[in-house]
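Batch manifest, entry 17 of 40.
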Amino acid sequence: MLDVLILPHSHTLTLDVANVFGRGAEPELHVWTTEVVTAPAWHWHIVAAAYAWVAALFCWVGRGRPAGAPSPVPYAVATFAVVLVAGLALEKAAAHPGIVWAVGTSAAVFYISPFFGYYCGVRGTSVARWLGALAIANLVQRLLLIAVAWVATTQQLGTHLDVHTITDIAPPGLGEIVLQTPVEAWTYAILMPQLAFQLVVSMVFGVVLGAVPFVLARRRARSRQ
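Output type: C-alpha cells
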C-alpha cells in the first residue's frame, strides 16, 4: 500500500484473463482468453491491500474467542470465498498473471487442507468424520464457485469464470462439443468439470496434505486428556 503513495503507479497494465480446457484433437489443453482487462497499475495494489485487511480484520474480530480450533467446515468455506473474490478482483484490476494465480482457488486448496486436517485433529474428530467434513467443505466450495460462474457467464461479467466466449470443448470421454449458448458453456466448462474433476482433486489433496497435521493434532489432543 505504501508503494502506491510513494512511487508512481499511473501507468496502465493489460491482463489477458485465461482459462484452459480440452479442445478437439489437441493433445494439450487449449488456453482461452475469456477477457482482456486494462487498468491503472495502482488498482491491483489496492485489491491486494484490501485482501490483507480482510485477513487482519478476521484475526481482530476473533481475538476474544476462547482458545481452540475453529469449526473446520465454515473456516474452509469462508477462506475459499474470500480467496475467490480476491482472485476475481485481481483479474478485474489487471494484476500480473503470477499474482492472480497465487491468489486463486486452486492455490487455496494447498493451504486450506493442512489447517483443515489440523483443526479436525485438535477437536478429536474421528477419521470418518474428518473425511466426511472434508467432503462437505469441498462440495460447498465448488457449489459456490459454480454459482458465481453462472452469474458471470449468463451476465457476461468477465473474469475466467465467464465462459460464454468459449465455442467448443472436448471433455474426456465425451468428444468434441460445440457450445451454442452461455448456459451450454457453463454446463460443460464449469458445472461438469467442477463436480466431476475438481471436486475429486480437491478431496485428494485435502487428504494428502491434511493427513499428517490431522494425526499429529489428534495424538496431541489425546495426550492432554
